[in-house]
Amino acid sequence: MSDDRVTTGAESIPPSVKAAAAWSWRLLLIGTAVAAVLWVMGQLKTIIVPVAVALLLSVLLRPVRDGLERRARFPRGLATAVSVVGLVVVVGALISLAGQQIVAGFAELADQAVAGFNEVRNWLAEGPLGIDSGQITEYWDQFADSFTGDGASGLLSGALGAATTVGHLLVGALIALFCLIFFLVDGRAIWTWLVNLLPVNARERMHQAGRRGVVTLSAYVRTQILVALVDAAGIGIGAAFFVPKLALPLGVLVFIGSFVPIVGAIVTGAIACVVVLVSQGWVAALIMLAIVLAVQQIEGHVLQPFLMGHAVSLHPVAVVLVVAAGSLAAGIIGALFAVPLAAVLNTVILYLHGTDKFPALGTDDHVPLLRRRPSLPAIAIAGRTPGLRRARGESVEGVDPFGESAEVPPTVPEADDDGAR
Question: Where is the chain membrane-spanning (predicted)?
């Protein structure tokens, strides 16, 4: 009899193929789950977007609320009210002071930008590159359709995806304001309730990971606001030397665009250069380009590393890919929220895998368990079962097996066969 073993079909498959197959179905399952979550979020974007905005604003206003509580001795409710009202007053004042100039300037800014892009298109067709004008026109039409097209994938439709009507906009504003107030007043209780939905063994680790995620989100929000202010001030002041009437609209546009990391700064800087090109010519446009590059270099090499540090440690390639994926999935709204979401997930996942980016936080802060339904009071029983008494080290003599104490009967002499005692 031969000792050679017959190789079955399963045994003939190389280990690498088995590993690839095992990973494949898991990745397909994860991808399906992610797609389902994104689809549900798309259907509920009118609710999810205001809640996300409220979360970002609560992270921004939390230091203000804490300062009012500690220094001014305000109660939590009053400190929250002052913080929210102060935010509304500041935003309203900025809009009222610069609103008319911004609205009038944006109309002229749009005309100047279109004229500038047309001039660039003519140079590409008639200049040394000699690109076919038909191709340029086709690309230009596609670019314009991305802003003004009727398709749901357009950037403008993506930006207005959560507020297609005035009613949706008002509902979103009310939801954001309502959630902001309760996030500031009772955020800890809300987080405790969410964590207690998890299995008991996972609650503590998820609580610690969530604390670090909040630190990351706080660093991102504060840094992006400061970076946006620096970018808007630098480019706006530079534009004031060439197009004074459009300096404020350009500054506002740069401020808004800076909340989309890397991509927003590039696009808004290009618009500023094109506007100066149309108004003042090539020399002024090159000077404006130098100003834009200088501001972006200060942002990338000074502000971002100094302010964020390792709190939002995402590689620029990862940032670009995340912004692109977010814009494809949800337009401008996706581009705005993609980077903070990726940064928080990065911090949380790293902590769950053993890498703590914020060891100084420690683990002394614990999430409390929610109150459970009180158990029924124990019924007092006169006697205890023998097993319970043995467990307590008590004597079990004279104990009825049903829990009632009984006296030990006296010893009775055995009777004779005839019944005599």
Answer: 20-41, 47-65, 77-99, 169-198, 219-242, 248-274, 281-298, 318-351
